[in-house]
Amino acid sequence: MPPAPPPVIRPVRDDELVAWFSAFSTAFYIWASDPQASAAARREHLDLQRTIGAFEGDTIVGTFRSFPTKLTLPGNARLDVGAVSAVSVRPTHRRRGTLSRMIAYDVDRAVAAGEAASILIASEWPIYGRFGFGPATWQATWTLRTKIARFLVEPVGSLEIVDVPTARELVPGIYDRAAARRPGEIARPDHRWDFDLGVREIPGRPRWRGSIVIHRDADGRPDGFARFHGEEKWSEMLPDHVLALDELHAATLEAEIDLWRHLAQMDLTTTIKAETRRTEEPFPWFLADARLAQPGGVSDFLWVRILDVPKVLGSRAYERDGELVLEVTDTVDGRPGPAAGRYRLFANGGAASCERTDASPDLTIDVRALSAASLGGTRLSNATRTSPMTAAPPWCATFF
User: Fold this and answer.
1) Which of 233, 293, 378, 399 is the most exposed place for a label (fewest CB within 10 A)?
2) How far apart are CA 107 and CA 104, in angstroms?
3) Is 318 noted as a catalytic residue in this protein?
4) Helix then strand then coil, % of the chain, to nearest 5
5) 128 is catalytic
């Protein structure tokens, strides 16, 4: 029996959105599925030209979408990139090259649109490395024991507990100021705040319900926020509540520390649990006892796939001056990928330039490893572990 022809990869039509969400739910069965409700809730925010289906006849056997955003680089340059989401292949159609074809389709689209990179959050580690993506940022869950936590610096500015309509007006601007100064962060579509703040409900997931506090600087300008909810816990009539920190962002370090202080002083609370935080947070260094704050659950988060090497490497800042010629290997669906080639990187005074060259390379590197190291969150020596290490982090395992 001859093999089935490869699926046709193309954007979906509006009348195919219900079938598209239905196909997506066959792989992500962990979420309650209502394709009709999902299509109705998401239709107005989906760019159908970037909402892709893999079609076997009239049946959608794979889903893939992306949306435009901006990625902050070291040095705070922000580049146009494509954020990839809703990637799935029907369980009955796996191992047939469907994902490879959808990614190749999107790479061609992104290159034509002038996007410098593609980004995603990987559901599984082994999937995306073979397509040139590398883990570029890392996350941790922080636990702060608040009962005896004391901060070493005095408060600045003011704090205000706000309702959802006020938060909806103020929070997007605060977040964008914070995201613009934090390498690895992305710009959020405005409509997302309706879901994040509980104005609207994502079909199949509970509506967010919680509290929001705004920080203002000395001039009264909003410069930080935290949104959180509580997990009630009593032990022999003693309050042992957990404050679940959904997110905390600030445009200044002072505002960030003030928000942590405020949360740590909440009545009836003994623990703050904060997920999807940086692996190295500044707030423990402002505590009288930093051991009260502990990170755990460290894992990868944002994966990057460089498409335009000169734009990415030439737009970011560097700690050292120097010159390096890189040979980048890159393959997309059996052909040379957009990052393939030889480049001269020159850094001076923190700024850089990068352009194609014919000079002999100092280093040959795969696009996956280069992408992983592009934001400075992954050491190049770790991204290329199969090669000899150039340096190792300090470690002592001997107790004395």
Assistant:
1) 399
2) 5
3) no
4) 30, 35, 35
5) yes
